[in-house]
Amino acid sequence: MVWWGSARYRALGQDVKKRPKPSPKTTDWVSKSDVIQVLRCPYAYWLQWSGAVDRNALISGFARGLIEDGLSFEAAVLSEAEPLETEEDIETILAGDHRLLDVPRFENTDLRISGRPDGIFTEFGLLLPVEIKSHASVTRTDRIELAFYWLLLEPKRTATGSPQGVVILRTPTGEIEERIALADYDFDRVRGLISLVRSVRRNGAEPRVCGCEVCRSEDAVTAKAIKRRDLTAIFNIGRPRAERLEYAGVRRWDDLLTWEPQRIVDELRTSQDFISVRQVDEWRSHVRAYQQNAPVYFGLGTLDIAGAVVMDLEYERTGDVWLYGFRVECRGHVEIIQLWGDTPQERSDNFSRFKDLLSRYPDLPIVTWSGKSADVPNVRAAASSFNDETVYEEVQRRHIDLFDFVYRNIRFPIPDLQLKSVADYFSIARIADVEDGLEALMLYEQYKRSKSQRTRSRIRETLLQYNQDDLDTTLAILRRLQRLCRSAGTTSSDESRVTT
User: What pTM does this model have?
Assistant: First the structure.
């Protein structure tokens, strides 16, 4: 590789010769943005393409913050590049050995795709596409983008070699370059998405349950999917699995009740999707919940809990806990405890207070929502960091994950089991306007960067309210689940009974 003076990269800028012009909007030409949008949600893409919604409506305030953060990182990387001042044409430049950023737009007329990668490492005509990402590790979407750009650059490629690309990532220790080998399945996926873009433009797309901004914000989208008895309205059947089921002949959720569970298991196995008969039985319970418009209790678990310590933690990308939140209920006593820590010393002190709290209420269960996958692993990391494994062991011994309980025992006539979704079903009100833990993390990072005391105080209050909302909501859901268990007349088994 050639290093130009002190610069890591060279910038082509806006004056390179033979810059292709953007193609007119047609149903055939496809860009990388089209591919990524249809990957996220074909229905939202159709609404945007047909003019039913403005493109900006597809981007939430939180997502816009992520985009701005990414653009800021990209600008920082680009600022390292020195302009490539040359009279050479683009073909000559690409045949050399350069690490280029700020490259022109390209077209592949055979595939009818166009786009502009963040950069190209030319490597004497091999042309490795480069993407600049503000996250710390390579994602599935990154691979799709690199595969798209590899295909895009094919007409300009003058050397042969294994398909690959480069992602410039932002990590806690600084930016890194990661070279990615692209496989046949990456290109199969991209070609399938390009075809899907064209199909959606011509034929439209049906509303399905997903987590995109349009589908999440528009109750009508979910209502339409439920009215159509769409498979994506069943918990644990996302769009890819729904497509596999439909290909096998399971078209609507009613078919889940008429097909033998083992037949469904066998059909999915042919597409390398391995599930159990129990999983199909859970889908069938969810179908019955929709049909009855009421919860269906299919498990044996009970929740014999009086007092509890409800726990909700907020943590950084590294897993460091910056907020311990607790709601204690014991014999009529209610207490909200929130331990905020920005510095290493504050976080150490908060861990000690957490340990003291466990000692003050030794007989109360530690109740979370989805804590097995989120809170408890971070308790373990904190315990290791502060050299006190007894805290983690105590939490493990007393922990009750309400999400896990619902997952194993109950289905509601709603598509998912997120805390806010279940709270909405039970008409449990929330106050803070924060979507989820990822948005909370972004707000905390804004808090740390801000120089304004007023801004920091406002963000802090918002995050404390969000954390308390989660605590209050989790406890309210616990009480409603207990009533549901009693009304269902469930009997206890030694494995599933929860007692204090």
Answer: 0.78
